C-alpha cells in the first residue's frame, strides 16, 4: 500500500516565508534617525572678522578658553530607499528612531528641495543669533558697541548641515568670542535650540539623539529649550542638561562657576534633579 502526503504544509511554508521575507526586502515609507556628532565651533567653524573700515565701530574677538559644540542628527533623505530589514535593525538599536516619512517630509519634496530649505533656515538662524547677541551685549556690555557688526562678519564653515536648531549655540559662540569675560572657563559646552532675534529659545527635533551626541563629544553641559522638557529621558547620565527659555538664561548659567559640577536635569519642572 502506498502513502500519499498532502502538499498543503509546503504551500503554507512558502506563503509564510513570502509573508515574512518580502517586507524585509521592499522599500517602506519610513525615515530613520540616528545620533549625529558634536562639531566644535572653535577655532575653525566660527570666527568673527575685524571691522572692514576705520570708520566702523570696533569690536575685539577673544580666544575661547574651552569648546562649544554644534549638535547634529543623521536623518535619511526623502529620496532614500528604506527597506524593512533596516527598520527592524533600527528598532533593535537603542539610539535609532523610526518615524513615518509623512511626519518629517512633505509629500512631493526631494533631496534638493530639502537641502535648500535646510540651508536657508540655517542662514536665518545665524542672522537671528547675531541680533539676539547684540541685544544681550546691550544689557551686559553697554561699552561694547556692536552696531556695525553684520552677518557678513560671521565666518561659519559648516557643510552638509542645515536647519534652525543651531541658533542657540551660535549665539553662545558669538558671545564667547566677543565677551571680555571667560564664559567657558575651560569647559566643554553643547547647546541645541532655535533662537529668535529677541533671544527666545525654541524647541527642536531629535532631543534624545542630540543628548547622545553631546555625551559622545564629552560635553559637560548641554543647553536645550524648555519646550523640549517632555522629550528628555527620565534618567540622564554623563552630563548636565539645562533647559532655558531665553539666551539671557543660558548666558547667566554659563557665568555660574559651579554649573559644571552637576549631572542630571535643571530647568524642567517634571525632571529637575
TrEMBL record:
GO molecular function, one term: ATP-dependent peptidase activity
Keyword Transmembrane helix applies: yes
Location of the Lon proteolytic domain: 122-252
Membrane spanning stretches: 12-33
Pfam families xref list: Lon_C
Keywords: Membrane, Transmembrane, Transmembrane helix
GO BP field: protein catabolic process; proteolysis
Stated name of the protein: Unannotated protein
Organism of provenance: freshwater metagenome
